[in-house]
């Protein structure tokens, strides 16, 4: 059995090399260069994840007191957006890395925070996600020492393949509530399945994970949900939702940029346009104008929500329920616009670029496919309902697993 809290470091078979990108711009260019091919192949992006680790991005959300970057939320989300412009699958992995760090930060006691957050820095741990309280197939049976045994399965476990640690939620039948814990991914009894095969977001390692008599030590149990959590602890949900929001914005931005480059290089004016260059076609100009309006509008609301989240985060235990609700409202507003922008801009890319842009090797459809898969995470209708309720009656969104 792996010693608790002592998982292996990054894959030693993938050492740093002189060819690895040394900064964020270099990383983005390297990811963009292989994005289309990796989208076709799917599977696990081991080398690219290594590059992300070598760029120092795994500790963006780790507080400075534990040796991390301690980046403010607007900076975290800008980094996620930057990756999503070129590869939204790997941006998803980075976003969920930050989310698991936050899970430990808000649910862990001081000793757990020090142990796991400092370990993330020193071991350059990738974190996997097996937290979904709605999925009650994973059963937690209490043990006499205060720990648990886990048996069952979890689905949509993003980032688990190739990770060193994972956060887990499981159903405790004795209390009827979920328990939350940290466990090394290599713990005896854990099997990470390679069964993630969607039409988009193909390299998020979001397959299922099976647990067979997996021991959870008492010190690995983070949170038992026995009492109503303080408003600050519930910010984890909004951190998660803004990860998705900024993925959507990045997809829209990436699709717009790919369309611009394609039309600039390869565009032909329509035969009745009366212009010599595609970039002078008034209808094409109007189409790009609409795509940009959607994109910059979504970015503006995403940045506003990130600033509000940062302000709320800095409040700590003093954060009020009302202030938390205002962040939730801003998050829903941003996510609605980002959701729509990602789908519409990635679809309108083809109207802007024309028939030749559907050439399969270009893989320009990956933006729409990635957006379509990711925007199904939770229903947009309920988010619009929350915004409409506030607009009509001044009622802020209630705390839930998604707001």
UniProtKB/TrEMBL annotation:
Span list, region Disordered: 1-21
Domain Acyl-CoA dehydrogenase C-terminal intervals: 246-378
Predominant localisation class: cytoplasm
Location(s), subcellular: Cytoplasm
GO molecular function: 3-methylbutanoyl-CoA dehydrogenase activity; flavin adenine dinucleotide binding; monooxygenase activity
The keyword Oxidoreductase appears for this protein: yes
Gene3D superfamilies reported in the protein's UniProt record: Acyl-CoA dehydrogenase/oxidase, N-terminal domain, Butyryl-CoA Dehydrogenase, subunit A, domain 2, Butyryl-CoA Dehydrogenase, subunit A, domain 3
Protein name: Dibenzothiophene monooxygenase
Pathway(s) where this gene product acts: Sulfur metabolism; dibenzothiophene degradation
